[in-house]
Amino acid sequence: METNILNNKWEDVSSFQNHSGYQALRISSNCIPDLFIAKDKDGYRCLLLFLPQEAKIKLKGSNKEKLQLTYISDKNVILIKLNDLDFVDLFNDLIRSLYSKINSLSESQDYANELIQSFYKWEDFFEDSISSKLSNEEIQGLFGELFVLRNSIREDHLNNVNEILDSWKGPFDHTNDFVYDRKNVEVKTKKDSKSYVKISSEFQLEQEFDKGLELMVISVIVDLINGASIFDLLSEIVQLVRENQGDLAILYHALNQKGLTIDSVKEYNNHRFIVKKTTSYDCTLNDFPKLSRSNIPEEINRVKYNLRISTLSDFMIEEKKY
Q1: Which of 59, 275, 283, 311 is 20 to 30 A from 243 (CA-CA)?
Q2: What's the half-sphere exposure (Cβ side, CA atoms, 13 Å) at 126?
Q3: Domain ranges, ordered by start, for the chain
Q4: pLDDT score recorded for residue 8
Q5: Which is it for strands 212-222 and 183-191: parallel, antiparallel or unpaired?
Q6: Strands 316-321 and 273-282
Q7: What's the confidence (pLDDT) of residue 11?
Q8: What is the pLDDT of residues 281-290, one digit of tens each?
Q9: Residues 6+ apart with CB under 8 A from 128
Q10: Contact 45, 82 (CB under 8 A)
């Protein structure tokens, strides 16, 4: 379901008469389950799933500050309610995600369970606190990864947006930042004036079986006036995912690994960068200079070193200037 269609439906909700105590509108005539968007008497937005009378479910429920899950037993209805009007866009993303998962399911037990399980995956995304502060280096690194993610979605012409989102492994502390079917990509973001990047372990430039491995270096300058923040990049990514009918739960889950939400990263809006160029190198070539698990003695571990970029021209795959 496209975002603009859902927004239009919200505008129509108030014109519909009471449905079990709510102003409600069926989300789509193509949806097999009885799924409704609604507003309660106080104007708070809700999602209602009406179950057949013979359907029996067990639901503990959840009542957090911004989002609520309730089972209304006498009506056999599962209710999801947004308690904070500042999160209406995120709530729309939740509805779109749930709709995509259950709209074609015909068994009540299946679509009820899917809705409940998906809700618990989403509820943490509505928290707006930062669990721990990012260092300047971490902010710069996250900016570079988001720059790559945004460009990958922009450049994709097959609408594989969910596959691209799934490929981003940086927040999960995976060995490499992006993992694709045929290659992995390690992203390093550095100041444009620096001649080296930091390699933080003997595994970062270790080739995985017969897959390709690229080192992508993002060269940036700090510009507090004209530069972009991680919030700016995330906002662009969210818009692109919505336009391509992607599942934003994948993106929000990745951010959640670092204790971040779309809203909480505004805390770092005073860190702004302009990308000057990106350069990709082939790390699988035999003479590529690296210390990796396969070429150092097993007695040596926790290797950290600086890799001088100016010496890698022979291994360059592509360079883009901005």
Answers
A1: 275
A2: 27
A3: 3-126, 136-321
A4: 87
A5: parallel
A6: antiparallel
A7: 87
A8: 999 999 999 9
A9: 66, 261, 263, 264
A10: yes
The two structure tokens encoding residue 8: 């239009």
63 is written with which tokens?
């009542």
- Provide the residue type at 104 as one letter: S
Residue type, 285: L
Instruction: Look at the chain and count its residues.
Output: 322
> Nearest Cα to 46, choosing from 32, 36, 57?
36
User: Side chain identity at 107, as an amino acid letter?
Assistant: E
